[in-house]
Amino acid sequence: MKLDLPELLTLVGRLDDAPGTDTPRDRYRRFLTRQLTTVQAVRDLLEQTQAALGDQHARARQDLALLLGRFLGFEVAFGTYESAPGAVRLEGHWRSRRRARIAIEVRGEQPAEAGVERLARTVSALSASLPADAGERWVGLCITTPFYAARRRLETQVAHRTAGDIRCISLDSLLWLAEMSEAHRVDHDDVLRLLTTGPDSDFMVELMRRLTETASSRPDAQLPRTPRPDSELPDATPRLSIVVKPDRATDTGFWLATLGRDETATPEQLLDAVIARRQVLGVTRAGAAGPAREGDWVCFYIDGVGVAGHARLALAIADASAVIRGASRFTAVFRLENVTIYDVPNVVLDQPAVLREPEGSSGTIISPLTRDEFDRLTAREPGASIARSS
Hints:
This protein is of the alpha/beta class. Helix content is 32%, strand content 20%. The protein is built from eleven helices and 13 strands. It has a six-stranded mixed β-barrel. Strands 1-2-3-4-5 form a five-stranded mixed sheet, with helices on both faces. Helix 5 links the parallel strand 3 (100-107) and strand 4. The termini are far apart.
């Protein structure tokens, strides 16, 4: 059943800053926190706030926009609805512990102050109050709704600020970013960089969105094959899943890559940081298996967890020292394409003995699969079990 915002506001009472316990404001925010567990649920109510003007819908919208921070990996603190003219006002903030706090201001109907001065005063006052050893900094984020009339003026002021402490993003872009985070296609570090590095947060999110939608509409699209060193890789690379079914060419190989712990990373960290984000894989061949080649398919296995994704081997990198640490440890280093990381791991193998590392080997171990084995391991049936003979 779809929630009806007018009915909800009638049940909780008039939203205001009146002090006390169990106020309408407290009841409303408690309901949002406990009942809205998906971004789509927040989006549905936000759309209803645009059906009417007035302070009740504006205040309901303010708290809903703040709630999106939870889906982006932040701690969410609600603030006040009103303040005296010229006074510091904090509508609410998001916190990433020991890193940053983001003061939120939601721009709906035209406010008395159309520029950034009020939010800048708030950020300045809050920054001055932070302990020297807090390890955090304050930035301000203006969230603009579709009917905010002074958006261009606001963006111009933000772009010309020398302090670099105010950012601007549309509510539509923020909802899309929250959906990507909810789907684990961007992580909290990516979100934090997007919202705190440079004033053009909205432009960067819109660019990511267009690229994602373009890739999704072209299922056979190939990812770039030109190798780049770590220093040139983008800091906020979204974890995009471009799903392409393996072809049935007779010369295509299929492999199981067992991700093991090394001195600096767990298998899960290797999957996230190197495979999903950098789209690179260093491998060591198991036993007498022939070499992996460009165009082969590989699925990623974590012992005790299951098959966590698959990809296609793209470019074999001749000099991989610039793109992966300790490249000499590996038999080969490949760029990856068509990378798909599963939200839920797929299959836990019944006979882990086949995954043992060959003596003297290092890095991710690959062992050959038949096409049918590969299909079964990547069939996306969570909880299934499969036995492989050695």
